[in-house]
Amino acid sequence: MAEISESEPLNPNPDSPGSGASSRRSTMPGTKRLMVTLSVLFPFLAGLPFLLKSTEIYRSPLPFSSIDSLSYRLLPEPPSPPCRLQVVFLRPGIGDSADRLARLISDEVDKRIEGSLTCGSCRRNYAVSVTVDSGNGGCACSGIGEGDPCFWRCGVVDSLGLRNKDEVVDEMLDAALGKGGRCMGSGVGKVYTVLVGESDAQEGVRIVVGKHRHAWVEGNVGENDAALLIANIFIKYFVNGGREEFVAQRKGEFVPVGLDGSVVLSFSLLNADPTDWVYDWNFQKIDEVMLAPVVQALAPVANIQMESQVLYHTPKSSISNWDDKSGGNIFGIGDLPFFVNSNEWHLDTSIAAAGRSKILQFVVYVPSRNECPLLLQLPNGKISKTNGFISPMWGGVIVWNPPECSADSQNKSLIRRTMSPEDLQKIFHVIVGQLRLLFGFKSDYIQDDDMDLINILASEKGFTEWELDVLYRHHACYNLISCTTTLESLSKLVQSLPRMIIMDDIGKQVKYSLEAASLAENNASLGIYDASAASSLQARSLAEDAFFHPSIMSISYSSLEHYFAIYML
Amino acid sequence: MSKLRLRFNPTAFLLIIFFFNSVLRPALALVEDGEGLEEEFTEELLLKPLPDRKVLAHFHFQSSAPPSAANGRHHRLFPKAIAQLARKFQIRELELSFTQGRWNYERWGGFDPMSTANAKPPGVELWAAFDLPLNEIDHTWKNLTHALSGLFCSSINFLESSTAYSAPSWGFHSNSSKLRYGALPREAVCTENLTPWLKLLPCRDKAGIALLLDRPSIYRSHYHSQRLRLISSEFTGIILEQALTVVLQPSMRSNSPASSGYGFLQPSWSVNSLFGKEVVGQCVLAKTSRIFFELEKDLAFKVDKQQPLSSWNNSAFELSVIPNNDIREINAVKNMGSSVLYVFEVSNSNDHMPLDVGIRWKIPLVWSYPQAPFHMNRYLMGSGNERGSIAISLRSTHLLERFSRVSDGCAVHAVIFQVVPWYVKVYYHTLHIFVDGKAQIISDVVRKMKISPSEDKLSPGSMELLLRFPCNIESATLTLDFDKGFLHIDEYPPDANQGFDIPSALVTFPDFHCSRSYQLDDSIYYKSPLLSKFQEGNPVQTYTEVLLVPLTTPDFSMPYNVITFTCTVLALYFGSMLNVLRRRAGEEERLERSKASEKPGLIPLLLSKLFSKLKGKEPESSPPLSTSSSILGPKLVAKVILVGLLAVIWNYYLKNG
């Protein structure tokens, strides 16, 4: 402090006014220094482009414009494969009115199709043709279908033929219409046939939807009623697969297929307490007899593998209560979230389900003695007939009460049995029903109340041909949309990050995915549903592969600041 | 087995016929599968008192799946995951062990089927033989390690790197070029490895013998080894052996009153006192469920001397449960006693009558276990962080003298298999062999040798030696010199200062094969996989200790220091460069001179400015400063505009980017 006080008086005027003038230099600056500076600066500036070039990142060229055009084409209006409705009137007397009837029916279909513009339905891409087969050689066709081998040949079946047993009629009609294969590639899609025949019985109308692509109506119906009925059958079953609207309108998530197009169905038989009884099953037989046709039918949609195991000491984790009225232990809808005991049920994921494939668990639960019989109570108080439930995208659970549990036996000796073939058949009927539910269909049509007039024949494949058509169409459509959105996101991502490395692999995958997508589109427009589904699946899995390519994951963000920090400084 | 196969063929034929039937008529009917060809499961436990007052408990579970096309897809008892593993990776044979602690060969025996098959090196050991073309094996091994590490919640995937595994040709097991061997000596083994292992049993630890596997008591043990062995072929199907060996210390307090007087009485124990649990009934799925209680040769011999050992309750000890059966070993060697097995059937027990096998000793006994012909030790020599040497020493146990009078021409063979990581660079030419302290010419002792030197960061070094010693040697020592390598900074494991573990070496004595057969009819052998394993036997083998090699560890903050230094140097360089370019010495000197003529000096001037600021006063020179700033006005504005322009361009460019 003392110093400061001392130094203060010493402080002179720091900047004399004259200093500004004298700071100007008196001599001219030499050019030598300038030259040196410039000679350093110039090579640097000249080298800069080379430096920038050397730090450039490799980006495989992606076909952005094709992706854009694909999404521009597909997203607002997904492809609608063509469908064809053929109506055959097996009755004499209305010979000349085929064209009029065709108009009538297509008007009716037009009115109703508004409500079902879901992805994969035929939309407005349908055609109606009417054939009037008057039996004794008289035959009249409305314009479109003449000469096509897929179409009805008059005189093959008469009205009386429809009065046989349903299954017999079904096979007969299938033979008459030519087994689907003949019509492949005709470019107009699958032909769905509705036959209208007469019956002697006066009461009511009988409608049967067959296992193949046809239905028949028996009864005396007027033209307008017939048109209404036919339009109804066509839209509800052949176009929408008998699904409820809310199911159909959900976006594609209902298809439990892995991103690489494979599904593993893992079947587990759980013996809750093996000290009471041990049940075993002959799964290989079921696999060969019951499940193989289902797998074959679903092959274009997914590559399905099956596995089975038997597990023991696997109690459920919810609690059930005894109910005198139903004579069993009751578990309700509220218990279902807690039924699956993930601690004790080691339903391992399989080595077969590597990567991005999907695994669906089907569990047959054998309750222990003290919780047997175990019954599922529906919210309306009734006991469930199937005694099972599904969990979307996970699988299904069925409770199977062994026959020993009703026989209230005191004998504590160990029961070691193999499940009887009849029981297995019942269980696997339910499982196929659950699989249908998981794929978005109704488990069966018996409880279809509003359509009590309609009989629907069940196929031993689990899915009827027309249902499979619907599945293929929807699957193709959703796959295409999902593929498009994935590719679009990829192109947006790539365009938004100019410093992202893009490997050649990705470029190739995108290219192949686009090719597969356009193939699927072509097939869809030609009406080859299964091929379209298969190639759309390929397109989607390739698009996903590109998007989730490990090189993208590793260096998805390298900003400009980063770049300057690394290369410039 | 051949009898079985003969029986199988007609059944298979029937099955085929039936299958066609059922296709035609799609109804499900049941066909009983061929008898004897079902999947099977057995559970066994062997209890055995050890000479150092500990107790050995050996759990043996065996699942088998007959050869079938459905293996890996449909299973009843056999774990699906394992079958899929065997199928996907085409495994012929696989053994995986998780071990904590070290088997004490001197006290717990080294020449009985138990120790030769179940003593394992600490940490994880995995070997697998594949049924694949040679060029696919390495790739499959890598996938297998990942699958196993997922299955057993462990870091087996570290064996993926080619620096971690080796391909022994004859030093480990039989001649096979399709075998891969890897070990992780530092793997910590705990309950997260046991739970997935138990999940492979049909009853898990919910029932049967596995109920005893109480985690705290197992992990308190002195030695704990959990093994999984898989054998798969077209003819036998898949056989999965799961064995868990624990060496427990029974608590001393629950002794009989006699112990107070006799300090050396062995502790009495029972299953309940060891594990805190009892066996209440078998796993209902097990074909056989037994507990064996074994008295080792020497012990049985000593008990026999007291009183001919006939019953479960004699003058030496008393078993807590009456055994269902007792069986004696068929012994080839005289004067050495024969071991005794007491058999307890678990199926007789239930909730009300638990099976609590135990022993109460009445007199103190001292006994010993049969020893391997040599005791193995491996140790490091040398000091410093640069080089050292590995020594493997063999010390004779004089087993040979006990067997037979040693003649002059008698010789004993030993196979040494050792894998050394690449950062321990062993110079194999420095191999020296000393027998009884005297250096030997290598070709006199080494019969066969296969050495694959390590490659840096590519493959470990492995050594297979077949040695031949005369029978009457006291000791032999092998030494090998090595240099310690340098690792890249990111190759160091966490806690690098602890040192690096070199996996155990394996020494096999091919001349000695130990097996143990019992006085039984063949049917019981067939039913008891454990006893049939004992009868099969193994060549005698010993694992050495794990070596801990300290390597030079870098200062791990070094990269930051380097960055700091480099940046300082760069800053100095650019700073002085710019300074040189910008400053004009001549001009400055001129200015200096002109100022010096007017002003008192720069330093007092600055000081005065500083002080005036400190005092909070405005320097008196503010008017001239403002004038000077007004003079610089247009320049300043231009500068501001320039900076602003640059900012705009920068921003624009960034936005585009």
UniProtKB/TrEMBL annotation, chain A:
Compartments it resides in: Endoplasmic reticulum membrane
Signal peptide: none
Annotated segments matching region Disordered: 1-27
A Pfam family of this chain: PIG-S
Source organism, top-level taxon: Eukaryota
Any one Gene Ontology cellular component term annotated for this protein: endoplasmic reticulum membrane
The entry's keywords: Endoplasmic reticulum, Glycoprotein, GPI-anchor biosynthesis, Membrane, Transmembrane, Transmembrane helix
This protein's pathway: Glycolipid biosynthesis; glycosylphosphatidylinositol-anchor biosynthesis
TM region positions: none
GO biological process: GPI anchor biosynthetic process
Membrane-related topology note: Multi-pass membrane protein
InterPro entries to which the protein is assigned, alphabetical: PtdIno-glycan_biosynth_class_S
Main location, first listed in the record: endoplasmic reticulum
Family: Belongs to the PIGS family.
Name of the protein described by the UniProt record: GPI transamidase component PIG-S
Organism encoding this protein: Dendrobium thyrsiflorum (Pinecone-like raceme dendrobium)
From TrEMBL, chain B:
A Pfam family of this chain: Gpi16
Record's keyword annotation contains Membrane: yes
InterPro entries noted in UniProt: PIG-T
Keywords: Membrane, Signal, Transmembrane, Transmembrane helix
Signal sequence extent: 1-29
Residue intervals passing through the bilayer: 560-581, 636-654
Protein known as: GPI transamidase component PIG-T
Organism: Dendrobium thyrsiflorum (Pinecone-like raceme dendrobium)
